[in-house]
């Protein structure tokens, strides 16, 4: 239903019969994210994402674009290793984001393999539905440094990418 007439009435100064101003709903919006300084893509620490959910893929891409951060979307752990040997000469990624509900990979296996290979130098963040407590425990045991519900991941995405996109922030580990 179109309620644009309410907006027009308030813009024109018209008030309803009760004499009070109609309330326009306020929607939550993220504060404008300030982009990082433009840095050559090969100089940025590697950020990889195992995400097959198109909604979150688009959200990560848009946030990364606004922050001026490069995020590589990969399908397998071999893709991560190929990216690293090709671009950075074997350096370790700063962050790996894993959708723990992914159907294209076995998330717990991927997390375990990557954590065994990169140890504490790489932070692995997994996200899942808030109702999946048992999966959260298994992901932590497999090697995720942080496991968060989808809503918290979405809300904190700019801070997460900003922290790991800079060389100083990449050296910090998530507690």
Task: Give me a quick take on this structure.
The chain is α/β, with parallel strands linked by helices and 175 residues long.
Q: Would you write up a description of this structure?
A:
It is a single chain. It is built from 7 helices and 5 strands. The chain is an alpha/beta fold. The chain has helices at 4-11, 54-67, 77-88, 107-118, 133-142, 150-165, 167-171, and strands at 47-50, 72-73, 95-99, 123-128, 146-149. The chain has one domain (39-165): Rossmann fold. It has a 5-stranded parallel β-sheet, sandwiched between helices. Helix 5 (133-142) links the parallel strand 4 and strand 5 (146-149).
Topology:
Layout: H1 4-11, E1 47-50, H2 54-67, E2 72-73, H3 77-88, E3 95-99, H4 107-118, E4 123-128, H5 133-142, E5 146-149, H6 150-165, H7 167-171
Parallel strand pairs: 1-2, 1-3, 3-4, 4-5
Helix pairs in contact: 2-6
């Amino acid at each position: 239903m179109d309620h644009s007439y309410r907006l027009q009435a308030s813009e024109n100064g018209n008030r309803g019969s009760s004499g009070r101003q109609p309330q326009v709903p306020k929607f939550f919006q993220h504060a404008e994210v300030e982009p990082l300084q433009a840095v050559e893509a090969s100089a940025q620490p590697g950020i990889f994402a195992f995400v097959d959910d198109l909604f979150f893929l688009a959200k990560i891409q848009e946030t990364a674009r606004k922050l001026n951060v490069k995020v590589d979307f990969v399908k397998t752990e071999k893709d991560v290793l190929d990216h690293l040997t090709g671009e950075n000469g074997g350096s370790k990624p700063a962050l790996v984001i894993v959708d723990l509900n992914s159907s294209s990979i076995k998330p717990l296996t991927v997390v375990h393999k990557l954590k065994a290979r990169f140890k504490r130098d790489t932070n692995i963040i997994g996200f899942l539905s808030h109702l999946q407590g048992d999966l959260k425990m298994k992901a932590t045991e497999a090697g995720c440094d942080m496991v968060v519900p989808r809503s918290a991941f979405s809300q904190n995405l700019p801070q997460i990418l900003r922290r790991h996109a800079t060389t100083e922030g990449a050296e910090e580990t998530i507690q």
